[in-house]
Amino acid sequence: VQLQASGGGLAQAGGSLRLSCAASGRTLSNYAMGWFRQAPGKEQVFVAGITWNSGNTYYADSVKGRFTISRDNAKNTVYLQMNSLKPEDTAVYYCAARRGPAYFTAPPDYAYWGQGTLVTVSS
Asked: In the prediction, which pLDDT does 46 show?
């Protein structure tokens, strides 16, 4: 499956952005999905995950209550709605897919990755 992330850009603190991850080559309904991010000079970390049928979602503590992951399997697309953005949310955001129902929080558990989209939050 090929993944294409989009929607990044520049936002002010307190603002919102919505990231999209469009899949091609396979139907996303067979894959759990995750969003990760990597800030400059830091390791890649888990942000949010969603099961293949949207039955369960999970968030890193740093984004809980501000970010929402969702998916539209009919459109083969996963979203990350980011509200109340903070400067510390600045990072390259990656979507990832793993075949099967359950999401995991470690990057090696995902076989397919999008190219990343840059989010910059100014104070």
From this structure: 97
